[in-house]
Write a sequence for this structure.
């Protein structure tokens, strides 16, 4: 892999223009979503049973009544009324109701411009925080701020080929997901790498803070309400994403689905809207535009410290596998905490590293430097052929497309570890963790949490040699990832010092404490969380 | 459906490929049989008989060709019927003419020779994984089961199972390869299971041949079969397959048909080992190769497989046949 530094990146004018025309495109996009979803549902409804419009509408009413009653919100009567009227409706009435619901949810996804939010946000000017959340709006005024921020976000990797792909087709940026800070971080990372801004789906809960909400929408974010479980809403969401891709809007999906609770580099990807990449490409092929290519860009976002680490690891440990899907009361909901994060964390040079991998096509194929798909034997292959039948006709097969998306997901999951960048915090956490595990005779976190405090003390010498060995193993195995590119010449002692400083400065209590010759693990859960970033590096065989 | 959509391409004109082509062509299916051996192609086109399967009279709807481009352009659905030793090279060769729309189902009941992919580290792969490295299409599957070439050629009642992750591959496999009553095709989604079951049945066929060569009593023979299926199921589950696949057509079905009479090379190898006619043999049959590859797979997945380990020990000359049989018997008795 050739790492191309992004410092002298050239601007991508064409790509930037795409998002600028979003507002004028919005109504057209919505109409397209409405037309497609209604047409499909009406056609499928003719089969009757679960596909009938009555069932579809009833499903919406039932889910909405349950949701609103559970949250004791207003508006439940509108859905009860629909439920009552359903039996007396003609097919035309049902079609109209369907159309109006699709439009309603479509508008909810796209979001509305709120002048009060606008007034509030513009009133404080292009502040540092404002710029962080909206790196591509107001470029002129933001340039000075950007220069100051320049050193804090470090972007590298396969940026040159990603730029080629952004010019030739449409990019789907697929980063690892650790924090709600990921959206602004990747926004900045893209700018730093000379890549265009993207639209992306964000949980509706993130829009509850009006300030953040404003900037998210300004970035082209659309709202995903994970409380709406009915199929019609998922239809609208998927179709909106598909239509955006078909219209050439660079998009961003977090294939992990939700923020990674454990901090282990994601392996089992939920994929979610990623499947719309195959659908969008298939539609383009069907419309006679097989060269409207889509490129999936694997990215890792690597934080020195993670804003919400405490909440995330608690959630993970409390209920492994049964995490609360939507966390609304974490560090991200407190603006003061975010400001503190910026002051303490982003003050460090290169405290966030955004590393870009080599793009793939929607079927998980590698591509050449020019953006042509190639098979595993390295031969150029026509991506359109993957959605065609025996006579060259485009065929619809949801199961096939889902299988392609799973193959793509496996390729992404395989790409993430080697794109992982380790900060001193990770290396130190791992070295201390290994030493603690050695003391206690187990690597099981639940047993370690009950271990006697004596086991939590390790000598500085042990940790230093652990750091050295870990760094040597990373050099030997590029597939595990790499240490921070700006700090490769640091000595183990410097790594230890900066690592301990990080691990003891931001979170509510220090994770590690050092006396002269000893290091004590004060917060085992967070130590586990930070060392988990190295979990794909197997324990040493003694 | 177009002519191309209804055609079956067969890669490899060995006994199985020719027998399958023969039974399908007799049922009216258009078959394109690809062989690299021009003399075989000429013999089939000229005499309607193949030197590889002289007993079978081949119907007119079977056409032989040495041109891979013709194979790829006239059939979207292909069956790969080559030796496990050749699968890597044939896949690469075929990859030159295929695209993402083709469907490739292999009928190779073996585990391919490990590839030296990462320096000196040998990696165990299933045949479908080897295929994916050589061809552009992802729509791959496996065809397996107790259908011996001689049964297919004489239109005896046979059944096979086609498995893939792709519903389309399974549905097309069933549609295009069914030729009742001579051949019925069942379906499965368990690609890993059917591939492993088919390969392991070859390995256990060697074990059964060896047991029969040692005049093992019928009770102990029955125990050997059930323990073999049980340990194969455990390995399968560890590798991501469904346990029940191993007692289906590709597993138990294959094992039973290959161990009746002297119709399988694996079985004969087992007997010859027991009789001391041949000693340590590591590469002569698909079953022998599968046994050695599966032992490595079992070690990497930490699954104990006494029967398989016993037969591998004989094949590599580490144990005499009687010692291995004793060891297998002791372990099985202890575990059960």
């Amino acid at each position: 892999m050739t790492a191309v530094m992004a410092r002298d990146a050239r601007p991508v004018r064409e790509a930037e223009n795409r998002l600028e025309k979003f507002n004028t495109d919005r109504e057209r996009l919505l109409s397209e979503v409405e037309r497609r979803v209604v047409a499909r549902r009406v056609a499928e409804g003719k089969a009757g049973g679960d596909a009938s419009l009555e069932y579809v509408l009833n499903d919406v009413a039932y889910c909405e009544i349950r949701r609103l009653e559970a949250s004791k919100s207003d508006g439940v009567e509108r859905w009860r009324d629909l439920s009552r009227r359903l039996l007396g409706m003609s097919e035309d009435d049902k079609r109209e109701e369907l159309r109006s619901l699709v439009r309603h949810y479509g508008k909810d996804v796209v979001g509305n411009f709120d002048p009060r939010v606008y007034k509030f946000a513009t009133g404080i000017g292009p502040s540092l925080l404002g710029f962080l959340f909206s790196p591509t709006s107001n470029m002129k005024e933001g340039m000075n701020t950007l220069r100051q921020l320049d050193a804090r976000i470090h972007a590298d990797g396969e940026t040159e080929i990603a730029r080629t792909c952004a010019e030739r087709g449409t990019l789907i940026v697929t980063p690892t997901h650790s924090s709600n800070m990921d959206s602004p971080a990747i926004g900045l990372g893209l700018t730093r790498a000379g890549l265009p801004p993207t639209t992306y789906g964000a949980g509706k809960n993130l829009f509850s803070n009006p300030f953040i909400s404003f900037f998210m929408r300004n970035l082209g974010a659309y709202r995903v309400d994970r409380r709406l479980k009915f199929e019609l809403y998922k239809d609208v969401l998927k179709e909106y994403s598909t239509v955006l891709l078909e219209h050439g809007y660079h998009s961003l999906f977090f294939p992990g689905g939700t923020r990674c609770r454990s901090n282990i580099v994601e392996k089992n990807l939920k994929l979610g809207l990623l499947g719309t990449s195959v659908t969008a490409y298939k539609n383009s092929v069907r419309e006679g535009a097989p060269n409207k290519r889509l490129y999936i860009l694997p990215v890792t976002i690597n934080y020195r410290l993670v804003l919400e680490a405490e909440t995330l690891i608690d959630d993970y440990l409390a209920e492994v596998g049964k995490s609360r899907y939507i966390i609304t009361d974490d560090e991200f909901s407190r603006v003061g905490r975010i400001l503190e994060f910026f002051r303490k964390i982003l003050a460090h040079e290169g405290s966030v590293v955004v590393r870009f991998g080599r793009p793939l096509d929607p079927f998980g194929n590698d591509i050449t430097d020019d953006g042509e798909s190639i098979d595993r034997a390295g031969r150029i292959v026509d991506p359109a052929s993957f959605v065609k039948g025996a006579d060259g006709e485009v065929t619809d097969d949801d199961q096939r497309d889902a299988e392609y998306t799973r193959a793509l997901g496996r390729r992404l999951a395989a790409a993430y570890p080697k794109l992982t960048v380790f900060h001193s915090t990770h290396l130190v956490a791992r070295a201390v963790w290994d030493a603690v595990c050695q003391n206690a005779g187990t690597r099981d976190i639940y047993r370690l949490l009950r271990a006697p405090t004596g086991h939590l003390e390790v000598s500085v010498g042990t940790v230093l040699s652990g750091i050295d060995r870990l760094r040597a193993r990373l050099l030997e195995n590029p597939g595990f990832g790499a240490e921070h590119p700006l700090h490769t010449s640091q000595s183990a002692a410097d790594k230890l010092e900066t690592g301990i400083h990080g691990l003891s400065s931001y979170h509510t209590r220090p994770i590690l404490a050092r006396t002269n010759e000893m290091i004590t693990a004060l917060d085992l859960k967070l130590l586990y969380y930070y060392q988990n970033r190295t979990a794909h590096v197997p324990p040493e065989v003694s | 459906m177009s002519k191309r959509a209804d055609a079956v391409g067969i890669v490899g004109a060995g006994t199985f490929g020719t027998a399958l082509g023969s039974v399908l062509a007799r049922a009216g299916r258009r078959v394109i049989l690809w062989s690299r051996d021009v003399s075989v192609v000429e013999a089939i086109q000229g005499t309607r008989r193949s030197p590889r399967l002289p007993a079978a009279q081949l119907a007119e709807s079977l056409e032989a060709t040495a041109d891979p481009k013709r194979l790829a352009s006239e059939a979207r659905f292909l069956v790969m019927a080559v030796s496990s030793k050749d699968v890597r090279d044939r896949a690469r060769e075929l990859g030159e003419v295929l695209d993402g729309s083709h469907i490739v189902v292999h009928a190779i009941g073996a585990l391919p020779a490990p590839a030296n992919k990462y320096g000196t580290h040998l990696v165990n792969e299933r045949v479908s994984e080897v295929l994916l490295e050589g061809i552009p299409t992802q729509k791959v599957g496996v065809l397996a089961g107790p259908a011996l070439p001689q049964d297919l050629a004489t239109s005896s009642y046979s059944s096979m199972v086609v498995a893939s992750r792709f519903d389309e591959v399974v549905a097309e496999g069933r549609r295009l390869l069914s030729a009742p009553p001579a051949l019925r095709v069942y379906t499965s989604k368990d690609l890993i299971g059917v591939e492993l079951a088919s390969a392991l049945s070859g390995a256990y066929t060697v074990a059964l041949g060896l047991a029969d060569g040692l005049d093992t009593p019928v009770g102990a023979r029955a125990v050997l079969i059930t323990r073999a299926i049980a340990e194969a199921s455990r390995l399968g589950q560890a590798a991501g397959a469904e346990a029940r696949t191993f007692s289906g057509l590709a597993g138990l079905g294959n094992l039973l048909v290959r161990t009746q009479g002297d119709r399988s090379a694996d079985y004969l190898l087992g007997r010859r080992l027991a009789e001391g006619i041949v000693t340590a043999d590591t590469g002569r049959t698909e079953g022998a190769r599968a046994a050695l590859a599966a032992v490595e797979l079992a070690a990497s997945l930490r699954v104990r497989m006494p029967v398989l380990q016993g037969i591998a020990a004989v094949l590599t000359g580490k144990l005499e046949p009687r010692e291995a049989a004793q060891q297998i018997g002791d372990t099985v008795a202890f575990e059960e």
In short: The domain at 8-189 of chain B is CATH 3.40.50.720 (Rossmann fold). Chain B touches chain A at residues 1-2, 4-5, 76, 92, 95-96, 99-101, 132-139, 165-168 (CB under 8 Å). Confidence is low (pLDDT under 50) at residues 117-122 of chain B.
